[in-house]
Write a sequence for this structure.
């Protein structure tokens, strides 16, 4: 049998931006028009939004790579076919038209109600003054039409600021776009009160959405490994199939029994990365999955290895999906092209040592492609250099085995801990609307961590939360003045959606979670304000910050390493300090002992235990 080149593998590799000819991989450069597109909920939202009678302007903003251009092309295609299936020919046609008329100089189509549709595919292609004029023009499109503007946030703000300069001929009208964007960040609402302007912030878009379909990651893995089996048929007749890590990855991820749990573990890893504060764009997700599935190899690379040795099974290990996902073989410069690799590497289960995991690992069960020859790390040690070399080899072997076991494990309850996030399960529990309201463990741990940020370490479970005078946050000696004591009973921990609902004061669910592929990425602790009637102070924590707070609550001291994080939290806590207390009684924390300092006659200061 001959050595076969799988065209499906070639198509998948196009998403990797590590070659000069693929460094700008975007929707427009896709040559495989038969490949279906992920049914993103934003497309459904756009189809509904453009039909609203009051709607005039829709802005799609967010980092490059979220798929703004792809959304516009998909919208045009859907408007062309109505209830029919979008064919490759229609997709090619709308792509050409978007290239020709994507400057919003003329209508590129029309809504189903017959209104002209204008699309500005990239605001960054215009200078700031020209962009400002274009924004004002598209706030009221000609002939009662609807305009869609694709813009990254920085350029949008620059153009709006340019129009806000009345001395240079600005109108001040473009400010509504930035105002609506800010409202979306604060309250999750994407439309202005009049319903004429909508700004969808795609930085809230998740590639591992908490939805029934599991988001983009699961969809792509199914499309590339389990759907359309004929695309892998050429591999069945290839001479190199028995030593090919690309085919092995596909078989592992498409296995009817173990495949679903392996794909779910990949999705969980991406979800955890997003919850730690990383913004993973659609482009980055496709690049990582492409590299993971191919191991960074092409069919020609595998053929060359096979021709050197038909039976060698020791070179494949770094290219298996559970190793390639963390980009070990990529250079630092290559990882910077796909920043998602940095976020994933922080959560590498291969670097986390857990006794209950390591005790069951066995190199003899590593599969068809072991991480190393057993003779290389089990030989006798004679010198310190031999010991060092053996330790490095064993570390590499255990990293391989831990990663493989993470994706093969049937138990998904321990996944956060295996990523080094001991507080991950508690973080997710906050989003459960059916959780027991009497369970205060997460709240108490959160408060104890905030006390630790201020240098307060009290034993046991306390019914109150102490806030130091801001002057003692960073310069605390043996004693510190307590500015305020907050009863824990009035404190609550909520997720992002709940906080938005509280801030909007309408009780209406925020539109943002319906406008994008949604995943709750932050939790908030709401502490009553100093002055009655004012809104509570909300302290934000993503998964990484919550993990730090949990460890600080348990006694971890790391002021230097996490100085920036501590400074940010201290700033939030300063809002809670009570500077209006004019009593002659001062509460002081000396060591871990509460004392009261009272001013007596003759300005004598007396101290008693509080």
């Amino acid at each position: 049998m001959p050595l076969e080149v799988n065209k499906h593998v070639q198509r998948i590799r196009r998403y990797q931006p590590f070659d000069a000819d693929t460094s700008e991989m975007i929707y427009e450069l896709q040559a495989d028009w038969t490949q279906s597109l992920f049914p993103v909920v934003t497309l459904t939202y756009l189809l509904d939004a453009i039909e609203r009678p009051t709607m005039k302007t829709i802005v799609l903003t967010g980092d490059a790579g979220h798929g703004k251009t792809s959304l516009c092309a998909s919208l045009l295609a859907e408007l062309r076919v109505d209830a029919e299936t979008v064919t490759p020919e229609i997709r090619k046609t709308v792509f050409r038209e978007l290239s020709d008329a994507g400057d919003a100089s003329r209508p590129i189509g029309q809504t189903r109600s017959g209104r002209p549709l204008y699309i500005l595919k990239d605001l960054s292609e215009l200078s700031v003054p020209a962009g400002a004029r274009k924004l004002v023009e598209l706030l009221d499109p000609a002939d009662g039409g609807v305009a869609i503007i694709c813009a990254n946030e920085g350029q949008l703000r620059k153009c709006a600021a340019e129009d806000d300069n009345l001395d240079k001929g600005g109108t001040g009208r473009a400010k509504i776009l930035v105002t609506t964007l800010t409202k979306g960040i604060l309250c999750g609402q994407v439309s202005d009160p009049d319903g004429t302007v909508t700004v969808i912030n795609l930085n809230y878009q998740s590639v591992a959405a908490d939805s029934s379909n599991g988001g983009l990651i699961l969809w792509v893995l199914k499309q590339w490994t389990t759907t359309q089996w004929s695309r892998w048929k050429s591999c069945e007749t290839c001479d190199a199939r028995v030593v090919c890590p690309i085919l092995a990855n596909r078989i592992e991820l498409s296995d009817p029994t173990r495949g679903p749990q392996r794909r779910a573990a990949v999705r969980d890893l991406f979800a955890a990365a997003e919850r730690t504060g990383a913004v993973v764009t659609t482009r980055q997700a496709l690049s990582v999955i492409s590299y993971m599935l191919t191991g960074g190899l092409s069919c020609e690379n595998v053929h060359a290895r096979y021709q050197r040795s038909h039976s060698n099974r020791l070179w494949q290990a770094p290219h298996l999906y559970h190793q390639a996902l963390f980009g070990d073989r990529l250079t630092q410069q290559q990882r910077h092209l796909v920043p998602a690799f940095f976020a994933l590497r922080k959560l590498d289960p291969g670097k986390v040592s857990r006794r209950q995991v390591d005790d069951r690992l066995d190199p003899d069960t590593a599969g068809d492609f072991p991480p190393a020859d057993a003779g290389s790390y089990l030989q006798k040690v004679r010198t310190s250099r031999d010991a060092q070399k053996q330790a490095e080899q064993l570390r590499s072997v255990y990293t391989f085995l831990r990663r493989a076991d993470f994706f093969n494990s049937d138990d998904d309850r321990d996944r956060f801990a295996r990523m080094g996030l001991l507080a991950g399960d508690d973080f997710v529990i906050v989003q459960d609307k059916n959780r027991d309201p009497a369970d205060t463990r997460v709240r108490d741990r959160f408060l104890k961590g905030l006390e630790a940020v201020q240098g307060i370490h009290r034993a046991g479970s306390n019914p109150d939360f102490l806030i130091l005078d801001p002057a003692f946050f960073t310069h605390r000696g043996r004693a510190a003045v307590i500015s305020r004591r907050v009863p824990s009973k009035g404190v609550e921990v909520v997720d992002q959606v709940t906080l938005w609902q509280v801030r909007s004061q309408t009780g209406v669910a925020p539109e943002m979670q319906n406008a994008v592929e949604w995943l709750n990425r932050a939790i908030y602790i709401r502490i009553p304000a100093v002055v009655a009637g004012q809104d509570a102070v909300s302290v934000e924590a993503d998964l990484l910050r919550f993990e730090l707070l949990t460890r600080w609550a348990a006694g971890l001291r790391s002021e230097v390493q996490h100085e920036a994080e501590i400074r940010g939290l201290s700033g939030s806590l300063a809002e809670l300090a009570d500077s209006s207390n004019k009593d002659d009684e001062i509460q002081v924390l000396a060591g871990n002992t509460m004392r009261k300092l009272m001013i007596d006659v003759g300005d004598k200061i007396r101290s008693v235990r509080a």
About this structure: Residues 41-204 form one domain. The chain has a mean pLDDT of 87.
